[in-house]
Design a protein that fits this description.
This protein has a single domain, classed as E3 ubiquitin-protein ligase SopA (Pectate Lyase C-like, 3 Solenoid), CATH 2.160.20.80. It has helices spanning about 1-15, 20-25, 30-45, 150-155. By secondary structure, it is mainly α. Helix 1 (about 1-15) crosses helix 3. The chain is elongated and about 45 Å long. Helix content is about 20%, strand content about 0%.
Length: about 170
């Protein structure tokens, strides 16, 4: 029995992360060993487009330049992470914690950031075309140089006096 469990763990660790994408498996990953193997690969430097990274802990990590297009990163912790030029196009980032994260030049186009915490995040040059910001907390976030950000997106989020926005835009108070 122990050998079978060991074999399953070793197999999961040697399986490429892209093979675990929801599109490839037909649904979200339910096997904890598979989920742990993918998380280890991402922490080790792998991109993971289309992957299920539900509740992954990437706090204090660098994911700069990596591709997470279409990934499910819901309820994840990316607090104080560095995600410069990372691609999150179409990703589900709802309820994700980006407290103090740096997302300079990140592609958040068409991403779901509903209920996300972007308190104190730096988003200079980040692309927001089509992103959903409903209920997102932008308090203290640096968005002055964000690209594709619209007033209608901001009107569904909240911020504070420390939130910096593109000229002429406002955000409701939290």
């Amino acid at each position: 029995m122990k050998r079978a469990a060991l074999f399953a763990c070793l197999f999961a660790l040697t399986t490429p992360a892209f093979a675990q994408a929801p599109a490839a498996t037909g649904g979200p990953i339910t096997n904890q060993a598979e989920r742990d193997a993918i998380a280890a690969r991402v922490r080790g430097g792998a991109s993971c487009a289309g992957c299920d990274l539900f509740q992954i802990d990437l706090a204090y990590q660098s994911v700069a330049g990596r591709d997470f297009t279409g990934a499910r990163i819901r309820q994840a912790d990316l607090s104080l992470a560095t995600a410069d030029r990372a691609r999150f196009r179409g990703a589900n980032l709802s309820l994700t914690n980006f407290f103090g994260a740096r997302l300079s030049g990140a592609d958040l186009s068409d991403a779901n950031l509903e209920g996300a915490t972007l308190v104190g995040a730096y988003l200079g040059g980040a692309r927001f075309g089509g992103a959903v910001l409903t209920g997102a907390n932008l308090s203290g976030a640096e968005l002055a140089d964000a690209v594709g950000l619209t007033q209608s997106q901001l009107s569904t989020a909240c911020g504070d006096a420390a939130t910096t926005l593109p000229a002429g835009m406002t955000v409701p108070a939290c």
